[in-house]
Amino acid sequence: MLTMYTDAAEALAGTLTDGMTLAVGGFGLSGIPADLIDAVRDSGVTGLTVASNNMGIDGEGLGVLIEAGQVAKVIASYVGENRLFAEQYLAGRLEVEFTPQGTLAERLRAGGAGIPAFYTKTGVGTLVAEGKPHEMFDGELYVRERGIVADVALVHAHTADTAGNLVYRYTARNFNPIVATAGRITVAEAEHVVPAGELDPNHIVTPGVYVQRLVQATDRVKHIEQTTTRPRPQAEQRQDQHRQTQQRQTQPSAVAG
């Protein structure tokens, strides 16, 4: 049964405990449940295990939980954008379970589907597979990976209805749909909340049956980890015209004799 809340702290009330496992949607800073992450920080819970694609950047996203010293273990596929995360890992203060990105996605999907474990060729013969059971299938060696079931899953959606159905926008969809299924309790924040029945059933990605708590997200800046752009043709043309004008202005005037 879905319950609507007025803010992120209220939506998480009674769900957070020391030493729990959180699954968090998003990819770096894209599609992250920023309000809910801040509410976890403000709650003061510690010893967290966080399963997410990565831990954001210093001072943003899941990076705020690293800075607050609330995370004991991370299950992730990438750490390169968060300097403090890397420093704590290298210093032995933070346990990290590296998982190939596709394997991490499948572990979350499996957990949400009630599949306790599965076999994959990814990682066989590497440090990722050390200590894990192996099995031969059709003459090929596979490693067994466990599904991930989190105590609480945190997700961000673009639009939700009051029945808990969720729609995501563009790349912000990323890990959110599989994380939404992997929590014993799933708490969603949504930029827009509409009455039940207004969403086109064909556009719903996460059915409301997976979502227990919902809060409307605050209007906040959506940060970008790295911006890589190229000038548009019109901009390039304007730049050329500007350079030509500057060159004419700096050339010495001809003196008539």
Automatic annotation (TrEMBL):
This is CoA transferase subunit A. Keywords: Transferase. The keyword Methyltransferase does not apply. It comes from the Bacteria. Belongs to the 3-oxoacid CoA-transferase subunit A family. InterPro entries: 3-oxoacid_CoA-transf_A, CoA_trans_fam_I, CoA_transf_BS, NagB/RpiA_transferase-like. The keyword Transmembrane helix does not apply. Residues 233-243 have a biased composition (Basic and acidic residues). Residues 225-257 are annotated as: Disordered.
